[in-house]
Amino acid sequence: MGFWRVLLSIFCPPLAVIDKGCGSILIVFLLWLCGWVPGVIAALVILNNPRN
């Protein structure tokens, strides 16, 4: 996970996980609509997942 990806996940979480698949984008986008912090946390968790 690069520095720019972390910054992108802080400012616009759905764009940070755009290469992880449609399900990840949808989950992060819905959490981002519910609140900024849940969207950022979800994006960082998805980006830090070692299996992907």
Quick summary:
The chain has 52 residues and is mainly alpha-helical. It is 73% helix and 0% strand.
What report would you give on this structure?
The chain has about 50 residues and is mostly helical. It has one domain (about 5-45). The protein has four helices and no strands. It has helices spanning about 5-10, 15, 20-35, 35-45. α3 (about 20-35) runs antiparallel to α4 (about 35-45). The longest helix has 13 residues, at about 20-35. It starts with a helix and ends in a 5-residue tail after the last helix. The model has no long low-confidence stretch (mean pLDDT about 90). Keywords: Membrane, Transmembrane, Transmembrane helix. One of its GO terms (cellular component) is membrane. InterPro entries: PMP3. It is found in: Membrane.
Alpha-carbon Rg, integer: 10 Å
What's the total helix number?
A: 4
The whole-number mean of residue pLDDT values reads: 92
Helix content: over 70%
> Could you spell the SSE succession in H and E letters?
HHHH
Structural class: mainly alpha
DSSP strand tally: 0
The portion of residues forming beta strands comes to under 5%
Low-confidence spans: none
The shape, in one word, is: globular
Span of the ends, CA to CA: 11 Å
Number of domains: 1
The major pleated sheet works out as: none
Organism: Xanthomarina gelatinilytica
Subcellular location: Membrane
Protein name: YqaE/Pmp3 family membrane protein
InterPro entries: PMP3 (IPR000612)
